[in-house]
UniProtKB/TrEMBL annotation:
Key words of the record: Cytoplasm, Hydrolase, Metal-binding, Metalloprotease, Protease, Zinc
Active site per UniProt: E70
Entry keyword Signal: no
Compartments where located: Cytoplasm
Free-text comment on the cofactor: Binds 1 zinc ion.
GO cellular component, one term: cytoplasm
InterPro entries xref list: SprT-like_domain, Uncharacterised_SprT
Family: Belongs to the SprT family.
Source species of the chain: Aquipseudomonas ullengensis
Annotated gene: sprT
Ranges for domain SprT-like: 7-158
Protein name as it appears in the record: Protein SprT
Main location: cytoplasm
Signal peptide: none
Length: 164
């Protein structure tokens, strides 16, 4: 699976080198990215991380757009320094001028929503039901208190949970 992607990374670097007439150090490429992000560029580590699931499901567009998008971040950082905006004019110049691609900030791949458990908290209001995330529920267990904005009562765990 990574062979085509590595080939595309190299092709993007060669295009940038031809355009800017200079050499760029090649990044480490990792396939250890999960969740909703298709790719991440770690600028100071010169590291690219890609989501193998989204790559497998969207191979053609991923190779063309996502790989160039992330490589453009590294090139922009190396050309213009660390004080530029992530999707600012320097990055956009690289996307349009070097790769001849639209400077799209976000992908439109289907990521699905994973199921999450919600813990139901109540107040004194008639319609006072508050679904808490597992993290917020843990904070309550550690002593943090949350209050209803309407009645100002402390929210109390109902003992009920649901999966959304």
């Amino acid at each position: 699976m990574p062979e085509l992607l590595n080939t595309r990374v190299e092709a993007c670097y060669q295009l940038a080198e031809d355009f800017f007439k200079r050499r760029f150090p090649r990044p480490e490429v990792s396939f250890k990215l999960r969740g909703q992000k298709a790719g991440v560029a770690h600028l100071t580590e010169n590291l690219l991380r890609f989501n193998p699931k989204l790559y497998a499901e969207n191979r053609e567009h991923f190779l063309k757009q996502t790989v160039a998008h992330e490589v453009a971040h590294l090139i922009a950082h190396q050309m213009f320094g660390g004080r530029i905006q992530p999707h600012g004019e320097e990055w956009q110049l690289i996307m349009r001028g070097v790769y001849e691609l639209p400077p799209d900030r976000c992908h439109t791949y289907d990521v699905g929503r994973r199921k999450s458990t919600r813990f139901l908290y109540l107040c004194q209001c008639p319609s006072g039901e508050f679904p808490f995330s597992a993290q917020r529920h843990r904070l309550v267990a550690q002593g943090r208190r949350y209050f209803c904005r309407r009645c100002r009562a402390t929210l109390v765990f109902s003992g009920e949970q649901r999966v959304e």
